[in-house]
Amino acid sequence: MDYLKTVVPSQLLAERGCNLVVINPGSANIRVGLAQHDSPYTIAHCIARRTSQVPKKNVQDQLLNSQVTTVQHMERERAYDIIASLLKIRFLDEEVTNIQYPQKMGRVDAFPSQSKDRKETVIPWTEVFEKGNSLGSGEVLTQKEGKAKEEDSSTEPKYREYICGEEALRISPSEPYVLRRPIRRGHLNISLHYPVQQVLEDMLAIWDWILIDKLNIPRSQRHMFSAVIVVPDTFDSREIKEVLTLVLRDLCFSTAVVHQEGLTAVFGNGLSTACVVNIGAQVTSVICVEDGVTLPNTQITLRYGGEDISRCLLWTQRHHQKWPPIRSDALTKPIDLLMLNRLKESHCLIREGEVEAVAVVHSYEDGTPPGSHKTRLTALNVPPMGLFYPMLLAPDVYPPPPRSWFSDNEDMLEDTWDFPRRPDMSDGYFPSSSGFYPMWEAYPIFQSKPKKEEIIGLADAISKSILSTGRIDLQRKLFCSMQLIGGVALTEGLISAVEERVLHAIPSHEAIDTVEVLQSRTNPAFVSWKGGVILGVLDFSRDAWIHRDDWIKNGIYIGSARKYKDSYFLQAQSMCYINS
After folding, report:
1. How would you label 253-284 residue by residue, b for 16+ Cβ within 10 Å and e otherwise?
2. Strand 293-302 to strand 453-454: parallel, antiparallel, or no bridges (unpaired)?
3. Which of 40, 103, 179, 508 could staple 33 via S-S, CB 3.0–4.6 A?
4. Which whole-number Å values give the CA distances from 226 to 141, 222, 268, 564, in the listed order?
5. Is the distance from CB of 343 to CB of 310 less than 8 angstroms?
6. Is this prediction's pTM over 0.85?
7. Dist. CA 498–CA 482, nearest whole Å
């Protein structure tokens, strides 16, 4: 303890971070890196596998119904007009000559924070053939082997069996590949079209590729590494069990520990109490943390995120006839969604008045080079407002996974195991009476019941989450300690919009008159990953760590206390890391 109070953070990271891998899986992206790194690799969490299926689907979990009903369309237009009234811009079907409010023209690229990160370069198609069979370093061939190799190289090029990351999103639809996303909307992407075994095999292939290609950790060396798994707040017990099995049994890490995203986000910013609002690509979750402990009853999951804002951007431009006459399809053509995400990140923001910008839009047709189209985008401040008015966003065409899967015969909440006690285990692992406790009994964050998923706006969700704590002192503290994380949290104007709308969402009879979003000390896109680094390095007691051999033998009983014994000490240490 005395050593930790005096050691320089960089020295501790160097000592303990060189063999610690932090993994933060998400629906659209996965963030992975060594604890000694300043930031993680952010990689598209998908894989494209070569297929001979005819007819071929571009996406494995192909949408079941992409038709928007008349009622949904009317609700969407109504939501647009409500937002237009708030932002003082033209209504959806209002002509330019009949403007209720004077136009406040503004180019988004006039703002430094927007112009410096603009990404309007064309996205290239992925090369799907294997690279030439050149000699590796130190490789010597006999004359016979050389002749055979030369003959082989003269044959037709060979397709890559699978392609991971962003490259998988940039494959032409004409190529014989099918795209798979193992996680969608905060859950393992299980469906009739995408069975659980395929989901887990794809996750293994993606994670193994990242470890080898990005972190240079071959399978033969992984017994020297430990893994911190920062799981989404939306994950259920069965999903956490499968991820642990993947990391310990299949990827061959020696030990692993599981932390929840909301908890690590708090430590990543050097806090101990906050309302964490995680706005990801496909799902938004709200959860409150008090003194380093998550409060499960405060969790609310919203089935929309950054990709829905991107799809709304396309709908808005088409309705205003600002989109070029090209066949853009964010659902069946992943490269179009990639382009829309970049346009959203560089042009969308929240502020009053007309917001327009000149942008370059690209068309991606089968087997042809990408085309460029210059256009003037309009109403760029409307799509992000869909976070507060979710009816503006397109309805979800992908069904959630079958809930029965989470309560199958292998339910980890009911199993018990017998195995020899390791000498390094503390007494906290074993009960005083005969028998063993269920493995996850002491994990209140891993619930067996399905977690609440609602269709309400972000401000209402935050207010409802904090008020559910039931204590006025804690409520006041949480309303002044809101923390926005996730890629969408970087949207310009979002912080002030959240503060304003959360204040209005609080019922008038509640004695709350102040709200505040705290400024993030770490990039909001990977603050949860950074918190995983801090907890992994500082958790010197290793009470919650699971050893590979024990897990393969059916697991161990985790310590009885999920709360850190010295939360304030860890919080002070994390502040030291953030400020160093």
Report:
1. bbbbbbbbbbbbbbbbbbbbbbbbbbbbbbbb
2. parallel
3. 40
4. 39, 8, 19, 20
5. yes
6. no
7. 9
d(CA 428, CA 560): 6
Single-letter amino acid code for the residue at 19: N
Q: Are strands 284-290 and 293-302 parallel, antiparallel or unpaired?
A: antiparallel
Contacts 24+ apart (CB under 8 A), 419-424: 419/550, 419/553, 419/554, 419/556, 422/547, 422/550
Given a contact cutoff of 8 angstroms between Cβ atoms, the answer to whether 368 and 317 are in contact is no
CB burial readout 434-457, b (16+ within 10 A) else e = eebebbbebbebbbeeebebeeeb
Residue 259, SS3 per DSSP: strand
Per-residue pLDDT of the chain (580 residues; tens, 9 = 90+): 455 555 555 666 666 778 999 999 999 999 999 999 999 999 999 999 999 887 777 787 655 555 667 888 899 999 999 999 999 999 887 755 444 444 443 434 444 444 434 446 889 999 999 986 433 333 444 454 555 555 555 567 899 999 999 999 999 988 999 999 999 999 999 888 889 999 999 999 999 999 999 999 999 999 999 999 999 999 988 899 999 999 999 999 999 999 999 999 999 999 989 999 999 999 999 999 999 889 999 999 999 999 999 999 999 999 999 999 999 998 889 999 999 999 999 999 999 999 999 999 999 987 678 899 999 999 999 999 999 999 999 776 666 666 665 544 333 333 333 334 444 443 333 333 333 333 333 333 334 444 555 689 999 999 999 999 999 999 999 999 999 999 999 999 999 999 999 999 999 999 899 999 999 989 999 999 999 999 888 875 566 788 899 888 865 444 433 333 444 444 544 444 455 4
| Alpha carbon distance 338, 333 (integer Å) | 9
276 CA to centre of own chain: 14
Instruction: State which amino acid sits at residue 99.
Output: I
User: Residue 109 corresponds to which tokens in the numbers above?
Assistant: 């690229």
Structural domains in the chain plus CATH codes: 70-124+306-392 (3.90.640.10)
DSSP annotation of 249: I
8: Cβ contacts below 8 Å, ≥ 6 apart: 580
Q: What's the token pair of residue 212?
A: 């080898």
Query: Where are the strands (E) in 122-170, listed by range?
Result: 162-164
Give residues with Cβ within 8 angstroms of 452, minimum separation 6.
Answer: 299, 300, 301
Instruction: Give the number of other Cβ atoms within 10 Å of residue 530's Cβ.
Output: 29
Q: Which helix H or strand E contains 409, and what residues bound it?
A: none
